[in-house]
User: Fold this.
Amino acid sequence: MAFDPALGDEELVAARAALTQGRWADVRALLARTGDDWDRRGHRLVVLGEGKSTLAWAQEWLLAEPESADAAALHALAAVFRASAGKQSPESAREACLRAARTTPHDPTPWLGLLILARSTGSDDEQVRAFDQVRGRHRGHHHAHYLMTKCLAERQKTDGDDPFHEVYEFAEWAAGEAGGGSPLSMLPLVALIERYRTLAAARALPTDPSRLPYWTSPRARSSIRTGFDWWLDWDGRSHPRLALDLNYLAFAKLHSGDTVAAAALFNRIGPHVTRTPWSYHDRDPKKSFRAARNYALGFGTS
Assistant:
């Protein structure tokens, strides 16, 4: 089982492999084809930016084409991940993002980079400012809404499961603004799972998510039902991060006791398994996913 953040994007996989060999022209062609599909552009640049050698090749690309907005964005994302890992200063990564943002003012991706950076090294206010900049450019930005949900869920770690916690208000507001056909319909469910992660880390909830009343509360039942209804109505359009939504939904369905729906979701997920949420809390995601899938499909727990 491989946890590939490319999530089945074959063009991205090919460009990523080319970039490890210094062939940044393949990335240039990929991003040119992506155009202003902002969710896909963000997804592709994030996956490419995580590569160990990406910063060096992005710098070479920038030297060859100093006016390239795509090179600037790739350089910014690579700097963000290095800064988040403690391998360079957050200030230098922040400046790289701002340079990229000035190059293409309409592109939300440099601001997505700033949101990723703010989550790991910044303040609550910096997170909100970066999110607002992303949303001002693309109101339905999938990755940014997930990140902001995580940020909000991590606040007030030891106060228990407050039904009026700000993460729930945010998720319900954003889902309502996006409309029923949007993948952001999943946000209340994402908020539920991310809040569980935070509370389990604080030992306010058991670290084993199995058979907890948490998953059958009125809020949980409503969020899970809404998420599942969205999936049933999904029109099949390609979305670069759909696999992440399905993994969250399978996790919630399983722990709410609906193994039949969970089994259908596991079949739909196929090989596109994501580390989150199966790694919550401090669990081996491979073992956790495999046990969950086997249980839902009736193959036992090993």
Remarks:
- Residues 100 and 222 are 40 Å apart (CA to CA).
